Amino acid sequence: MAIIGYARVSTEGQELTVQLEQLNAQGVNKIFQEKASGAQHDRPHLLAMLDYMREGDTVIVCKLDRIARSTKHLLEIVEIMETKKVAFKVLNINLDTTSPTGKLMLFMLGAIGQFELGMMLERQLEGIRIAKEAGAYKGRKPTARAQETRVLELLAQGKTKKAIAGDIGIGIASVYRILKAHRGG
Question: Is 10 a catalytic residue?
Answer without folding.
Answer: yes
